[in-house]
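Attaching the record inline, Q. Sequence:
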Amino acid sequence: MNVVVIGGGMAGMSCAAELARHCDVTVLEAEDAPGYHSSGRSAAAYIEPYVNGTIFTLTSSSRAFFENPPAGFADASLVTPRADVMIARAAKAHLVDAYLQRWHQHCPGLVEIPAASVREQVPILRPETVARAVSDPNVMDIDAHGLLNGFRRMLKSRGGILATRSRVESLARTNGQWRLDAGGQSYRCDVVVNAAGAWGDQVASLAGVAPVGLVPKRRTAVLIRCGKTDVTRWPMVHEIESEFYFKPDAGRLLLSPVDQTPSAPCDAQPDEMDVAVAIERFEAATNITVDHVEHRWAGLRSFVPDSMPVIGFDDEARGFFWLVGQGGFGIQTSPTIARLSAALIRGNDVPSDLREKGIAARLFAPRR
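Structure, as predicted:
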């Protein structure tokens, strides 16, 4: 089977690497290098209590891969344990009970910890910011660059091809195959995998396929120094209603206002208002005044209305496979979604270990 994957981000590269075990695979990436957009701009944390039970399963099923990747996949560890706390001020303290009840079945390790211990770990937090707090022992930092590069290596070692600067210009099905023109080259294949991220609906329109209603949403991050304080061992800190989060990053603090502003597909740039909101919320929660931002950036996270990924063949377009809509969980679920996608593309059932955990193809069907 010949397969062309459109998009060299984490979704496309991981799927292609898995498919290359059994298929002839080419990845077409529009930019100079894979992972230029969302995959290269993520905070890249492994967080199990995220979205719902289905995403929890996709995430937790990926843990073994992150902790023990295949031989030669990476030059260093893909994950590093990261202490993590979710905090709530007094006015939101009641939300802690609902949060713990919601996730207890899936994440029994979640535990409430004393507010005083959080302020000991992160001394810049104002006392009024932390009335209650929850600790998650399973959070890890993910080396997104190492992970993406590992999938690239795997793809190439299995005979797959990565073509950069290859934006798809035309896409049509003729004589039982798909024909694509990209980067001055023409390609023919049995299956097209649409892993184009924020551009997923645009790729579909090239093929004459109905959109699935993708909405790209901008997420902003800024990097600051915290004086001479060593923040390396601090936990990742989330506000319980996602007003902000911050986490250590190479000796600095990465802050985000957790914005989700709808956007057209583009090379996302940070909006000054979102940067200001990030700083304002951080300063309100801590005793730090931010007088300099070292770096600021933004990325697009793409969603469909139910916030679930879209994985599967389109009912109306033979050989057109959707792999989009992975919101903020694409990196932490990539090993499992790659296995799932590769199985479905090859005409197989959902892998048995995932079926046993309640994962079914219908959950992700494009026209669900």
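The mean pLDDT is 97. The first strand starts at residue 2 and ends at 6.

More tomorrow.
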